[in-house]
Amino acid sequence: MAKEFWIDLRDWDKDAATTAIEQGADAIMAEDASLVRQLGRIKTIAPDGDLKPGEDIFEVEIRDQESEAEAVSKSKQGFVIVSTTDWTVIPLENLVAQSDRIIAAVNNQEEAEMALGVLEKGVAGILLKNNNPAVIMSVAKVVLEKTALVDLEAFTVKSVSPVGMGDRVCVDTCTIMKDGEGMLVGNTSSSFLLVHAETLENPYVAPRPFRVNAGAVHAYAMMENGKTSYLAEIKAGDRVLVADKDGKTYGATVGRVKIEKRPLLLVEAENEGKVISLVLQNAETIRLVGEDKKPVSVVDLKPGDRILGHPESGGRHFGHAVSESILEK
C-alpha cells in the first residue's frame, strides 16, 4: 500500500500549499479548507474539510506507555498523527507493530526516512510540519521511494492451454511503466501473477508502456489500497497497484479501460502445492515475468518454466482480505 504524504499548513502558507499539491501530496491540514480548495483538488484535513480532526483524524503526543496505548486505541476509529518532543525509533516500532493507521509527524527528510523505515514496513504515512518548499520536495521524493513490498515467489508452470474466445481487459494507466513492472492479477483472490506492462519493442505493435493487458474480465487485480477489484469493474480514476520484478510497488491512476473479445489462454502454475492460474489473451505481446526477472511471452510458456507470482493467505470478501476458508477453483 502506498504511503500517505500530508502537509501541516494550519499556519497558512499559500506557496507551500501550491508546492505540496504539485509534488503529489495526499492531503493538506489547514484551519480553513476553502483556502486549500482555491488552489486545487486535494484531500483536506480541517474542521470544514474532507477529514475532520477529532472525528476521522486524531493527534496524540507520545510521552509514555499510556499515550502509546491511547494512540493504538484511537487508530481503531481513524488515522492517528503521533508526535513526541524527543523522537526516538522505539515508540514508533511499538505503534507500527500494533496498527496500520499511524501517521508520524516529522520536520525534515531525515525524520521522514526514519519513520517510513521502522520495522521495515514503516508507518502508514507522514505529516510534514515544515513549509519550506525545498523540504517539501525532498520529503515527497522520500515518500515516493519508500514503497511497500509484496512477496513474489517462483511458480512452476503446469499447463498453458487455449480456452476459446472471451472478453479481456486492457488497463491503460496515467503512468509510463518501466521494464520489469506490471500488475498483479489472478483467477482467484489467493494468488496473483505479475503481468508485465507493454513496455517492450516487438514486430507487431508499438510499445504501450502505460498499458497492462491484464487478463479476462472475471480476474482479480490488486489495487493501491490493498483491496482487489474485478478487472471488469476497474474504471477511469481508480488507483491500481503497480509492482516490479523485485516486489516494489506504487499506485497508478487508471485513465481508460478497454474490454474486447479476444482468443484466450489459461496459464496454470504451482508452488509447494499452492496453485495459481490466470486467463490471458493469447498473443505474443502478453508477457508474464520469469524467475530470472525477465519478461516472457505467454505464447512461449511451457510446462516446467518458472514465473513470478504473489500468494496470499485467506480469501477476499468485497475486495477485503479475510481470514476464513474460501474454496476457489
TrEMBL record:
Keywords: Amino-acid biosynthesis, Aromatic amino acid biosynthesis, NAD, Oxidoreductase. GO terms for biological process: amino acid biosynthetic process; aromatic amino acid family biosynthetic process. It is an enzyme of class 1 (oxidoreductase). It holds the Pfam family DHQS. Transmembrane segments: none annotated. The keyword Secreted does not apply. It catalyses: 2-amino-2,3,7-trideoxy-D-lyxo-hept-6-ulosonate + NAD(+) + H2O = 3-dehydroquinate + NH4(+) + NADH + H(+). Its EC number is 1.4.1.24. GO terms for molecular function: 3-dehydroquinate synthase activity; dehydroquinate synthase activity; NAD binding. InterPro entries: DHQS, DHQS/DOIS_N, DHQS_C. The keyword GTP-binding does not apply. Residues 155-329 form the 3-dehydroquinate synthase C-terminal domain. Belongs to the archaeal-type DHQ synthase family. Catalyzes the oxidative deamination and cyclization of 2-amino-3,7-dideoxy-D-threo-hept-6-ulosonic acid (ADH) to yield 3-dehydroquinate (DHQ), which is fed into the canonical shikimic pathway of aromatic amino acid biosynthesis. This is 3-dehydroquinate synthase. It comes from Methanochimaera problematica.
